[in-house]
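Entry for the shared binder. Reason: the reviewer on the internal report wants the predicted structure included alongside the sequence.
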Amino acid sequence: MRHLPEEIGKGKSRSKPQPPPQEPQSKYAEILRRAREKGDARENAQFWDPKVAGDSIAGEVVDHTHHNGSYDSDYYFLKLEDGTSKIISAGSSTILFKKLTALEIEIGDDLAVVYLGEGGDGRKYKKWSCESQKRVRTVDGPPADDGIPF
């Protein structure tokens, strides 16, 4: 007769230990992910500084702050495709500020900006092309019953 270790003899098996069960997806998982992205963007982002006409940037807006610095700038924190973060700074009196404000950008939107160079007769200014794409919003279930019969 083969002698088994005591714990096996009491109904325990020798199978490999199983990983702990996955926690169910928290209802706050998405907001926590966004908070982590925003924190990472603020900690690690560097300013985008286009030098030559044609320089461009595109990414997901993970944060947007107002009234920054001595030029009262808006900062748009972008998460780029390669995972890095950049800040687009737009002073409140600039053409870039006006173009970005007109787009009504929200957190989660995709934003692309192209520097087109300088223009102007006498007073120089920077020219920009800006485009945004709204994030896809999910609905939290069917619409509420409005009480109107069909």
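Summary line for the report: Helices lie at 6-9, 29-44, 95-102.
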